[in-house]
Specification:
Length: 95
């Protein structure tokens, strides 16, 4: 049996870690990369604010950084139980 280190396999894991650490530097609750921002819907993009463009260690490609301007205290979890649905129905609900 072999153990696989996911951080070794995916540069996305490293990027996620760097974004999470950078939230403290920028004093924001959440940071998203430009790559994620680019696939957001227009409604979600309206909630975002670009705060910087940086070059991260190990990459020569600049990364745009966005924060999400949302009052997290006013957000409430919407309970939607998916256990009663089969896989095909769950995918349809998520899309």
């Amino acid at each position: 049996m072999f153990k696989i280190d996911a951080s070794y396999l995916s540069p996305n894991v490293n990027m996620a870690s760097r974004l999470e650490a950078a939230t403290k530097q920028y004093g924001v609750p959440i940071l998203v990369s430009g790559a994620l921002y680019d696939i957001f819907t227009d409604n979600i993009k309206m909630l975002c604010r670009e705060i910087d463009t940086v070059t991260v260690k190990g990459s020569i490609q600049p990364v745009r950084l966005f924060t999400v301007d949302v009052d997290f205290e006013r957000l409430h979890e919407k309970k939607f139980k998916l256990e009663h649905y089969n896989i095909k129905e769950k995918r349809k609900i998520r899309d």
